[in-house]
Amino acid sequence: MSSTQLRANDPQIPSTADGSQGLPLLVLGALGVVYGDIGTSPLYAFREALHAAGSPSVSFARLEVLGLLSLIVWALTLVVTIKYVSFVLRADNKGEGGTLSLTALARESFKGKPVWILVLGVIGASLFIGDAIITPAISVLSAVEGLEVVAPTLAEWVVTITVAIILALFFVQRFGTERVASIFGPITALWFLALGVSGLVHIVEQPSVLAAVNPYYGIRFLFVHAEIAIPVLGAVFLAVTGAEALYVDLGHFGRKPIVVAWFVMVFPCLLLNYFGQGAYVLTNPVAEHPFFEMQADWARMPMVILATAATVIASQAVISGAYSLIRQAMHLNLLPRFHVRHTSETQSGQIYMPQINTLLLICVIVLIISFRSSSALSAAYGIAVTGEMLITVALLFVVMRKIWRWSLLLALLVIIPLAIIDTGFFVANIAKFAHGGWVPVVVALSAVFLMQTWMAGRRLLAAKTRADEIPLRTLIDNLTNKKPPTVPGTAVFLTSDVEGAPTALLHSLKHYKVLHEKNVILSVLTSSSPFVADDAKIFYESFTPLFSRVIITFGYMETPNVPRALVLAKKLGWKFDIMSTSFFLSRRTLIPAAKGGMPFWQDRIFIALAENASSATDYFRLPTGRVVELGIQTTI
Question: Does a structural domain hold residue 57?
């Protein structure tokens, strides 16, 4: 018996700042992908803060405007600059970021991989999904609402135009965005420049507005107007929604381009625009839509068009992020294998998921038609994001203690202030629950339930399978002593249980009563790392001349292409020829049991998820002409 491991060159690992693209191009790309969401917040964040503060009279407008501006400035500084840029971006999982990457990193730091960390990760991922249905709706709606300022007669068409844009956006997902993605960065860069210039014009007219840099004004506002502090903080938080994208997209660009883009372009332009809106409101205290109203007459329609383009790009980034997150959840066995279609021959991250796309589209359209304005929809925005941020802080604390080896005192000195800020924003957004905040909560709870159902069902199914199977070594010994007739060729039997005899092998022997000359027991595993180290990709073990075992381990960010990986095993002595190889899989038909581990209705949901999952043939990229599926009925 022999075993060997092989280094496999994985073409899917993305290039970062150290790659061939160069820092300027990566910074430009980060503008279009990472900062699209937070970059469109000026369309509605300051406006909603004014609405939350009421309609102040001219006599006290100055202090109130400075107070609101100060809160926004320091929210951006504390949440984005200090929390994400200074700390969270350093907690990468081999270059990857996001809730599930942070969850995997935190779990790996414990010997027993505690369940509570996985639970936090599942909740965080579910909250992101809740956020993903709101961002396209509120972003595009807020941009199109600029028509109300440019041409008030078009106000009744805002919802219709928004729905048409959303339909077009989701329709083109199937074709991929590779061809147009190259212009996302330049358009977003133009958007940020427009934000900065339009704000600077009004700052020059009212330079006193810069006094809002002093946190005194924000603190004073909260104390003097304590009765409206909660709704105001809920509105102020809209200015930092999208901050989590810095961490989610860490693997696409690397830390340095994201940080450079923030300090060189994004942060300065956001501040200039918010200060500009504040300066405009000081001069025009009854402004309804300060962002569009402060534009020169000739610039309003171009700004509406540019804002619409920027919000579409921001929405595209969120949709792609949702695809990526759900694919990670699939690879980590948190969700069934939904159909994944690759839309690019060169970029493995360019994917399209038809089922998820349709579900997101329906949810976004329902939100737009139900709420009908970005102001109403802003009440639904925030709870999911603040919840996800709180989970990020909790997992970051684990990383600080277990991986960075920080002392308890040092970790608490950093985490406690961050947790207080996030908790304050979370409480402020919870207050909006009855006015629409329940929407992302319901979506997130539904996602949590589906993940819990899938994981519980898989555990029950695995336990039942193990009870019916016999140990692989026992079967090999029996077949070696009493060898059945053999036929030419190689048979590959897929199994998720590394130690058990594949169900497909047992049924093949039962029905055909023959073995192939070479029989390979193949298991495909998913690592808790985004990309598996090359020297751990392939494990080959020879039992007898008749039987061998191959274990392929993919990272949760990789596409599991089994034939491509098997070719690598040639270097280990296994003469793999795809044209003389047959892949044997077991396809289970699940029947709910009257008495089982889950309630009957939950069994039905698990079965529905399993029936709608992509087949193993498609998921593992197996050649359909070389696959034999054996049907098996299982009661759970």
Answer: yes
Supply the pLDDT for residue 159: 93
Has residue 87 been placed in a domain?
A: yes
Q: Residue 300 corresponds to which tokens in the numbers above?
A: 């309003």
Q: Is 41 helix (H, G, I), strand (E, B) or coil?
A: helix
Picking from 603, 611, 563, 605, the residue whose alpha carbon sits closest to that of residue 587 is: 611
- pLDDT computed for residue 575 by the predictor: 73
Residue 518 DSSP code: E
User: How many CB atoms are located within 10 Å of the residue 12 CB?
Assistant: 14
Residue 94 has pLDDT above 90, yes or no: no
Nearest Cα neighbor of 192 from 26, 41, 70, 319 is 41
Task: Kindly state the percentage of the chain with pLDDT values over 90.
Answer: 45
Which residues lie across from 634 on neighbouring strands? 590
Q: What is the DSSP letter of 467?
A: H
Nearest to 614 by CA among 323, 360, 355: 355
Based on the fold, state whether residues 381 and 483 are members of the same structural domain: no
CA-CA distance, 609 to 619, in Å (whole number)? 15
* Full domain range(s) for residue 610: 2-8+470-635
Tokens of 622: 């197996």
Which residue bears the tokens 């994981």?
A: 455
* 475, 601: one domain: yes
Which range has the worst mean pLDDT, 52-66, 91-105, 396-410, 588-602?
Answer: 52-66
Please, what is the average pLDDT of the chain? 87
57, 203: one domain: yes
As a whole number of Å, the end-to-end CA separation of the chain is 37
pLDDT tens-digit readout, 103-127: 989 988 888 778 899 999 999 999 9
DSSP 8-state class, residue 250? H
DSSP 42-72: GGTHHHHHHHHT----GGGHHHHHHHHHHHH
Based on C-alpha coordinates, what's the Rg of the chain?
Answer: 27
The answer to whether 395 and 103 are in contact (CB under 8 A) is: yes
Q: What share of the chain is helix, strand, coil (3-state, %, to 5)?
A: 65, 10, 25
Distance of CA 628 to the CA centre of its chain: 35
Per-residue pLDDT reduced to its tens digit, 172-208: 888 876 666 778 889 999 999 999 999 999 999 999 9
Number of domains within the chain: 2
- For the cut 70, the answer to whether the pLDDT of residue 51 exceeds it is yes
Q: What is the pTM of this model?
A: 0.86
Under 8 Å between Cβ of 364 and 334:
no
Q: What is the mean pLDDT of residues 130-145?
A: 91
For residues 532 and 400, state if they share a domain.
no
